[in-house]
Each structure stands twice: as structure tokens, then as C-alpha cells.
Design brief:
The protein is α/β, with parallel strands linked by helices and 275 residues long. Helix 2 runs parallel beside helix 5. The longest helix has 18 residues. The protein is globular, with a radius of gyration of 20 Å. The C terminus is likely disordered.
Length: 275
């Protein structure tokens, strides 16, 4: 594995009863990279995120963040090692405003009870609020600052959750289907925003996403899972041409040559496998 990896999974396995969900999984995420973790429904992608963030304990193997083994570190403490995440299903506080939800993301950077109270104190323009306002503006969400999150469209809520996760100042951001529920314009805006964070701030991204156009535009590295096992790893171009990946996504036996495809089949193939 790369010596410049910010995250390493080594022979990681997870079972639920008699069901093996992740099996002997090894891969690394390069520092500053934008890496996609893809695969069909049920491949184990969100489970991998839950293992990295500590929601589930690992049954075998290890997870390292930089030089620290975080395999047994409780989930609530992993943010201190530079890991933040979003969720497949939005987990915002619907009764709070957008600004207040984003401020909640700052609490991990404040120690003790005074630190917990500081970001939401009664000073109307303290530095924490100003930082949260600036982050919303940077993400193109300034117009939603005072709106109750529960009243906003789902796609907007997904983008707010990304900004909230960034308030923890992570080194590695896990994004679980960030483009789900976004229209094409919102998806493109999110892609450009994440690219800017990666290039300007050096943020490392690990992305689970079914939108292959989004993955191909954003990510330079791709890891493919099928039934909890890694079946391919490489650049989007290499993944697109990998016969086993084509089999998993398109149902073609890997040993058979792919027949010339009709135009509509080619369009489906681009949506499923192209970068």
C-alpha cells in the first residue's frame, strides 16, 4: 500500500450472524485524493463506512488513520483522529435552522462544558457563527441560513449535511451518496465544491455513490466491491474496462467477449461504468 496513505484497511472482515458482509478487505486512500467506493446494492459499501467511522466493530483486520490504529477506538472519538462523515439518509435536526445545524458540527473542536456552550452563546456575531456563515456562503447555501432545515428540499439538506461535517475540520471526509436527491445543476455544483475543497484545502475524500457520472467527474481512484469483497481497484478508465466489473454491473460473464452493443445499451453502460 502507498506510504502516503491517510487511511488503510488491512484484511478487514465483518459478519452479522452467519452472513459475511465484508470479507478480507484491504485498500488504502491516498492523502489528498478523491477516492470512490462503488459496487451494486448490497455490496457492503455503507458497512465499510460504518466500520471506518466506528459505528460497527471490526471482526477481523485493522483500520489505520495516518500512523494510528483506530480499530478499537470508539466512534465518538474518531473525529479527533481526523474522520468526519455524512450519511446515506440525512441526519440533520429538522427543528433547527441551517446555520444552527452547521454550528453543531463545530462542537467536536471545543473541549469541556464551556466549549460545548461557546458556539451557541448569546453573542450574535461570535467567531463560530461567522465561520458557519462563511462555510454556508462558500457552499452556495447562504440564502438558507435562517430557514428551518425540515422545511427545505431534500437535495438542499444533503448539501447542508456536507457543510456540517466540514465544520469538524477533518483530514478525511466520508461521503455516503452525497449526490442522491440532487438535480443535475445541484450535482454539478456539489462536484465543483468538493473539488475545490480537495485542491485548495487538501481534504481527502472517500465517496460512496451510485451516480457514475458524478464519480467519474470527481474521483481519480476507484475501489469496486461485490458481495463484500474487493474485485477491482484503479483509475476510472481502468475500472470501466475491467471485465469483472462489467460482469458485476452488466451481467456479462467475465470469460465471454462483450458483443457489440446497441446504442441504448451503450448509454446504459456509460451510466453504469464510464468515468
Amino acid at each position: 500500500m502507498s506510504s502516503d496513505a491517510v487511511l488503510r484497511l488491512e484484511s478487514v472482515s465483518k459478519r452479522f450472524g452467519g452472513l459475511s458482509v465484508v470479507e478480507d478487505l484491504t485498500f488504502a486512500v491516498r492523502r489528498g485524493s478523491r477516492t470512490a467506493l462503488i459496487g451494486p446494492n448490497g455490496a457492503g459499501k455503507t458497512t465499510v463506512f460504518n466500520l471506518i467511522s466506528g459505528v460497527y466493530p471490526v471482526d477481523a483486520g485493522s483500520i489505520r488513520m495516518d500512523d494510528t490504529d483506530i480499530t478499537r477506538i470508539p466512534s465518538r472519538l474518531r473525529i479527533r483522529h481526523g474522520i468526519a462523515r455524512t450519511f446515506q439518509n440525512v441526519r440533520l435536526m429538522p427543528h433547527l435552522s441551517t446555520l444552527e445545524n452547521v454550528i453543531v458540527g463545530q462542537h467536536s473542536r471545543n473541549a469541556g462544558w464551556r466549549g460545548v456552550l461557546h458556539p451557541v452563546n448569546l453573542v450574535p456575531r461570535n467567531r463560530w457563527r461567522e465561520e458557519a456563515r462563511a462555510a454556508l456562503a462558500d457552499a452556495g447555501l447562504a440564502d438558507y441560513a435562517v430557514a428551518a432545515v425540515g422545511s427545505l428540499p431534500y437535495g438542499v439538506q444533503k448539501r447542508i449535511e456536507v457543510v456540517r461535517a466540514l465544520m469538524a475540520k477533518p483530514a478525511l471526509l466520508l461521503l455516503d451518496e452525497p449526490a442522491a436527491g440532487l438535480n443535475p445543476a445541484e450535482t454539478e455544483a456539489l462536484q465543483l465544491y468538493l473539488e475545490k475543497l480537495s485542491v485548495t484545502d487538501g481534504l481527502t475524500l472517500l465517496v460512496v455513490e451510485h451516480d457514475m457520472h458524478f464519480v467519474g467527474a470527481l474521483c481519480g481512484d476507484v475501489v469496486v466491491l461485490s458481495f463484500g469483497r474487493k474485485i477491482a481497484e484503479g483509475s476510472p478508465d481502468a475500472i470501466r474496462q475491467n471485465p469483472l466489473v462489467q460482469e458485476v454491473y452488466l451481467g456479462k460473464p467475465a470469460a465471454e467477449p462483450l458483443a457489440p452493443a446497441a446504442p441504448e445499451a451503450m448509454e446504459f453502460r456509460r451510466a453504469a461504468c464510464s468515468a
